[in-house]
Amino acid sequence: MAFETTESVDVDRQSSPEMIYEHLRRRILSGEIAAGAELRQLTLATQFHVSRGPVREALRLLQQEGLIDSQVNQRARVRSLSTEEAEHLYALRVVNEAVALSVSVPRMTESDIDALERLVEELARTHPQDFAEWERIHDSFHRLLLSHASAQTRTFLTFLAQHTERYRQIYVSDSAAAWRMGSAEHGLIAAACRERDTRAANVLLANHLARAGLTLVAIMSPSYEPEMLRAALFQVTNTSQL
Predict the structure, then answer these.
(1) Which of 61, 192, 46, 171 has the alpha carbon at shortest distance from 116?
(2) Among candidates 203, 189, 199, which has minimal Cα distance to 241?
(3) Given this model, what pLDDT does residue 170 score?
(4) What's the alpha-carbon Rg for the chain, to the nearest Å?
(5) How many CB atoms lie within 10 A of CB 166?
(6) What residues form the membrane-spanning segments (predicted)?
(7) pLDDT (average), residues 105-129
(8) Are 229 and 211 within 8 A, CB to CB?
């Protein structure tokens, strides 16, 4: 299935490959351009008012990031969702976000924690079918939670979070009960931060991410055994101090 759109996008011709890449990347990660969709160079060149050269470069960047598959003399397609990739993304998040949180909690200000609690309240009021709004608030919560980690760490964790966005839509939309549980878990994490209980916050965050990942894997492939994700959770929750 080819990705078709009548939308016209204005870009700066001098930086068009990067801008085309960012535009397509955002739409792929949000699920607006679905897994398996075909990306035709001529269609995209028309949409962005550029020649095929900048489009080819943008597609190369998307392929380099692992978001599309493209072979010589073949059309590019958005990569299919993969149970293995979903597991690996969540396993990396479990370990690395727990470490980042151990740095962030002692440095949080009262304003930071007040803001976390407001975001928890907003999440609780958001309907799971309004995924765009839920994702905006959810992203703000996790960014603020880890805001005192190093810039390099935050960049890496943002990359992981963005790549799990395509998968989170499955998880959030498939189970209202899971969505409500996730909302409650955000509240517990914020409460642990309020108490400056770094260890409790680490374990709560690790369990929160692992539960989301395990639920997602079970939805996508019930027979798949997520050994890496279970090992990541064990690493965090059974370590006396991070």
Answers:
(1) 192
(2) 199
(3) 78
(4) 19
(5) 22
(6) none
(7) 92
(8) no
The kind and range of the H/E element at 98 are: helix 83-104
Neighbour-count burial for 36-72, b at 16+ CB within 10 Å, e otherwise: ebebebeebbebbebeeebbbebbebbeebebbeeee
The answer regarding whether domain 13-78 maps to CATH 1.10.10.10 reads: yes
Dist. CA 192–CA 145, nearest whole Å = 11
Spatial CA neighbour of 182 closest among 194, 168, 192, 195: 168
SS3 222: coil
> What's the rounded Cα separation, in Å, for the pair 100 and 13?
39
Residue linked to tokens 């909302």: 183
User: Under CATH, to which class is 83-237 assigned?
Assistant: mainly alpha
Amino acid at residue number 13 = R
Residue 237 pLDDT: 93
Question: What are the Cα distances from residue 18, in Å, to 60, 67, 100?
Answer: 11, 15, 30
Question: Residue 131 has what pLDDT?
Answer: 76
Contact assessment for residue 97 and residue 205, using Cβ atoms and an 8 Å cutoff: yes
Provide the token pair at 201: 């916050």
For CATH 1.20.120.530, the residue range(s) in the chain are 83-237
Chain CA centroid to CA 120, Å: 18
Return the structure tokens found at 104.
Answer: 């962030």
Q: Which among 187, 225, 222, 230 is positioned nearest to 94, based on CA atoms?
A: 230
Residue range(s) in the chain whose domain bears CATH number 1.10.10.10? 13-78
Mean pLDDT of 47-75: 88
